[in-house]
Design goal:
The protein is α/β, with parallel strands linked by helices and 305 residues long. The protein folds into 2 domains: 36-131 and 267-300, Rossmann fold, CATH 3.40.50.1860; 136-244, Rossmann fold. It has helices at residues 45-55, 77-93, 104-109, 111-123, 132-136, 154-159, 161-169, 183-188, 195-211, 229-235, 246-259, 261-266, 281-292, and strands at 10-13, 26-29, 36-40, 61-65, 98-101, 127-129, 147-152, 174-179, 217-220, 241-243, 273-277, 298-300. A 6-stranded parallel beta sheet has the order 6-5-3-4-11-12, with helices on both faces. Strand 9, helix 10 (229-235) and strand 10 (241-243) form a beta-alpha-beta unit. Helix 1 (45-55) crosses helix 11 (246-259) and helix 2 packs parallel to helix 4. The longest helix is centred in the first third of the chain and has 17 residues, at 77-93.
Length: 305
């Protein structure tokens, strides 16, 4: 059986004190890149990728936004699971040994099934991680009152994932969740700077605070929401600590790699960044700047191909 390898992945070694012919050269195979995959239903995961690459700049990364089927927030568990699994399989075909679901809805509705049911049959040496667990591992440390609020998509709130996971690390912590179904569409359609967006932001923050006057910490449990951080903060009581997930997830990933030296050794370190979308590359590149903080050049991909 013959293995076809691109010429760019070959190194030809020769010895300077010998006169060489083609037959005297020795060919070795350079290892294929094994980047970290970062997934989101749209653009929001770019805020997580920005934080991760700031802490791990030497690693290679691939980002995939399933923009053609976004948003995920209002879709069923079965649909979100199917879309997320297709995306994970695509990452594995790109030789990513580690995939981060930088999407709260995908983490809430699909991660556990993929980890427990699908991953062993696909490749047990690879890993798929989410954003909910690393956040709930530390969220209780930010609260003095023992009451925290969650602003998230309907899918994340309905899953009860934050209440379930937070109870594992902070059994006494009270978690109050508020669904914000309109915010992601507003953000992805560049409507979040308008006064109409303020109406909905105030509506959701007021509804959250009415659930308990003891809330002193609020988590933005959607990776799109950092773009409206200042607006959300302006409608919350001044004593509230407002948290975004990017820095928390990034710090957790650094710790994960320190604990899992085998995975750390597998990951390639060429400082490369690649961006893919299932929809228009023009639209993706235009929107991505606001989330990622710099210009990107994306490629369109068909997950079924």
């Amino acid at each position: 059986m013959y293995l076809a390898v691109p010429f760019s992945h070959l190194h030809i070694f020769t010895f300077p004190h010998l006169k060489h012919s083609t037959s005297e050269a020795f060919t070795t195979f350079a290892p294929m890149p094994q980047p970290i995959g970062i997934f989101d239903s749209g653009y929001g995961g770019l805020t997580v990728m920005k934080a991760i690459t700031a802490l791990l700049p030497e690693y290679d990364f691939i980002y995939l936004g399933d923009n053609a089927r976004a948003p995920y927030g209002n879709r069923s568990f079965e649909t979100v699971y199917r879309y997320t699994l297709e995306s994970v399989q695509w990452f594995f075909r790109q030789d990513c040994p580690l995939v981060i679901l930088a999407c709260n809805t995908a983490s809430a509705k699909a991660l556990r099934t993929i980890q427990q049911k699908d991953l062993p049959g696909m490749d047990a040496s690879k890993r798929v991680l989410g954003v909910i667990r690393p956040t709930t591992e530390v969220i209780g440390n930010y609260s003095s009152s023992g009451s925290v609020g969650i602003l998230a998509t309907s899918g994340t709130v309905n899953s009860g994932s934050y209440e379930i996971e937070a109870a594992k690390f902070f059994p006494e912590l009270k978690v109050f969740s508020q669904a914000c179904p309109v915010l992601v569409p507003l953000i992805e359609n560049d409507e979040y700077k308008n006064e109409g967006a303020d109406f909905f932001i105030k509506k959701y923050t007021d509804a959250l605070m009415k659930q308990s006057p003891n809330i002193d910490t609020v988590l933005l449990a959607c990776t799109h929401y950092p773009l409206i951080y200042d607006k959300i903060f302006s409608f919350l009581p001044k004593w509230i600590t407002l948290l975004s997930q990017g820095d928390i997830v990034a710090a957790s990933l650094v710790q994960y790699l320190e604990r899992h030296s085998d995975m750390k050794a597998r990951l390639s370190k060429g400082g490369q960044r690649q961006f893919f979308t299932t929809d228009s590359t023009v639209d993706f590149d235009r929107h991505a700047v606001a989330f990622y903080g710099s210009e990107v050049k994306s490629q369109q991909v068909d997950l079924g191909a």
